[in-house]
Amino acid sequence: MSTDDIILKRSPVVFLKIIILVEFLFAFLPIFLALIFQATAVDYFNTSFLAQILSFNLFVVLLVMVLQILTIGLAFAIWFVPTYTITPENIFLTRGGILSDLEIARTPEILGIEVEQGWLGRKLGYGSLILKLADSERHGRISNIPDPYRLKRELEQMETAVTRPAAYQPDKPLPQLIHDGESQYLEFKSSLLWDYRQQRPNKNLHLPVMKNIAAFLNTQGGVILIGVGDDGQILGIEPDMQVMKKKDTDSFENTFNVAFNQMIGADFRRFVHVSFPELDGKTICAVIVQPASMPAYLTHKGQEDFYIKTGNSSQPLTVSQAVRYIQSHFSVQ
């Protein structure tokens, strides 16, 4: 564990809340038990050896006291054991016992942090942090912590200091990569130009290819295999080349470059390597993308969008999310 890691527990106010709830329940518990079980309990008690030592009322007092002590001890454990650990890589909650650690978020994927406090939280100086993540469908939460604004500042400083991960490098032969299927670092595209559904050329197919390249540029890099179906079937780029002036890989790469320069920009071409391996007697285009040193935007029909890779999908970010991501991802080279 690094000295830069942050370890913290929930605010003691959480424990106080549990104690108040416990006391409230125990205030009414004897009355509730007396109304339901008093006659039966007294008869059973009088036949036990305890009746020779103490009265029934004293027994009830002692029993309630023991239950209170055990419950307060359990409440203390519920408050004390859970621990948040925040590192430059991730944030997780250690819950103790048979419960496994719970990952709250990956630190580099945090796009924004909001402080949530109620009236009592503002008075007593505790609250929760709501973490907006690159995966827009999910939010992380650090609940009931002391001085949440201080932690927010520390977490933002930690994000800024994070060095971007090393570039992805394919570590398997091409057939094995295809066999393993699409992932965060691997995308299959049937074609660059040929529309298999309409059985004709379609320049709109440039968009999904370039969108994934932009997302790879903005994250950890990856590989796009053009001429491979979603199911891993080797289709080849021959149908693409058949509709080009020169039916060869040079013409294909030139078409690729024109689309790339228009939609992403020629200054990013140095981060992309294109090759044409053959598999099953067919030619595919392997596009290896390295992470860029600056933000890459996708331009289409006069509109600029910013994409990152999250899991096996390319995720567009809103303006505020993109600003936040760029500040944390590209600030340290």
Name the overall outline: elongated
> What is the distance, rounded to the nearest whole angstrom, between the alpha carbons of the first and last residues?
24 Å
Question: How many β-strand stretches?
Answer: 18
| Structure annotation, total helices | 9
CATH topology of the domain at 174-329: Methyltransferase, Cobalt-precorrin-4 Transmethylase, Domain 2
Helicity range of the residues? 25-40%
- Under CATH at level 1, the class of the domain at 174-329 stands as Alpha Beta
Question: Spans with pLDDT under 50 lasting ≥5 residues?
Answer: none
Measured by DSSP, the beta-strand proportion falls in 15-25%
Regarding quaternary structure, what we see is single chain
CA radius of gyration is 31 Å
What tags apply to this protein structure?
18 strands; Methyltransferase, Cobalt-precorrin-4 Transmethylase, Domain 2; four-stranded antiparallel sheet; four-stranded mixed sheet; alpha+beta; 333 residues
Structural write-up:
With 333 residues, the protein is an alpha+beta fold. Among the domains are: 6-80, no CATH class; 174-329, Schlafen, AAA domain (Methyltransferase, Cobalt-precorrin-4 Transmethylase, Domain 2, 2-Layer Sandwich), CATH 3.30.950.30. 39% of the residues lie in helices and 25% in strands. It has 9 helices and 18 strands. The strands form 6 sheets. It has a 4-stranded antiparallel β-sheet with strand order 1-2-3-4, with no helix packed on it. It has a 4-stranded mixed β-sheet with strand order 8-11-15-12, covered by helices on one side. The protein has a 3-stranded antiparallel β-sheet with strand order 5-6-7. It is elongated and about 105 Å long. The model has no long low-confidence stretch (mean pLDDT 84).
